[in-house]
Amino acid sequence: MFQESRAFDQILGIILNFMFPIKMLLRTYSLSILMIDIVWVVVNAICAVLQASFELFRPPPLKSVRLETALVIGSGRGVGRDIAIQLANLGAIVICVDKNKRNNQETVDIIKKKGDSAVSYIYDITSKDNVENLAAQIKKDLGSVTMLFYCCGIPSPRSLLTQPPFDIHDTLDLTLTSYYWLIDQFMPTMKAKNHGHVVALTSVAGLSYIKDQMPLSVAQFAVQGLAESLMEDLRINKIDGVHVTLVHIYPFIVNDDTTDLRLRIPSYFGTITSSQAASSILESVRRNYPEASVPKHLLYLGHLLRILPRKATVLIRDLLDTGVDFA
């Protein structure tokens, strides 16, 4: 009995001695694969940084939007109107949608006077049924939408300063929920054809809390999440012909001629017209940038605020607080 037990121990020892090098080899192999993956990620990350740096001096070429069917929600005034006008001037077929019939028709008339193509639809897109009816009507009249610009929910300087916050449901419906419904209606066709562009416009409220505007800030942050989720969805499904551009608009920078603003650091911020803002947005869209801002240089400030410790970001926000006031 003792001899049998001893023989068994010897056999077991031989087996374990034989398996030990195999385990070591497997661990070594796994470690090698991990190291190769890490090196691959680091090298590609460095290449991406170098490419981004190169594109600062030599940006990608502008793509044509001629004969694209561009849906502009909120085209009755402000940046939305100027985006619609400039898209039409570039040769796009512009679908102007706004709940204000008079303002929207003025936009269409301006476009048609220049000999460009535009059509007006009057809908309140805060209703899901209205969004579905709008999508059905557009598909019947014009076919597929290839570009979607959602210009609702971007506040003006006056609204940020003087208007009380909207009801939370109204704010979310206008800024986020309606946008989701529109994407749900038009994105599947873009994916099927592997061609299209979705533009998400957010305000500074999506980068930093605006006093007394918590519902708006929450909704604007959510729009950013929606845009980034769309980008990931397209990447995972390997759809490279549909693009998403997230644009941060600083309302205090865009002068809508209704306020006389005094900024804390005028030389840094300055003001631009809604036409200039629309031109900047369309340039970023035509270069297929995933993220942009108006004005452009403030995009890097947004990136900086994301990576610094909170105490540091609070100090920077206090320093660059627009301190907007009516002169």
Automatic annotation (TrEMBL):
Keywords: Membrane, Oxidoreductase, Transmembrane, Transmembrane helix. SUPFAM superfamilies: NAD(P)-binding Rossmann-fold domains (SSF51735). InterPro entries: NAD(P)-bd_dom_sf, SDR_fam. Pfam families: adh_short. Gene3D superfamilies: NAD(P)-binding Rossmann-like Domain. GO terms for molecular function: oxidoreductase activity, acting on the CH-OH group of donors, NAD or NADP as acceptor. GO terms for cellular component: lipid droplet. The chain crosses the membrane at residues 38-57. Belongs to the short-chain dehydrogenases/reductases (SDR) family. This is Uncharacterized protein. It comes from Diatraea saccharalis. The lineage of its organism: Eukaryota, Metazoa, Ecdysozoa, Arthropoda, Hexapoda.
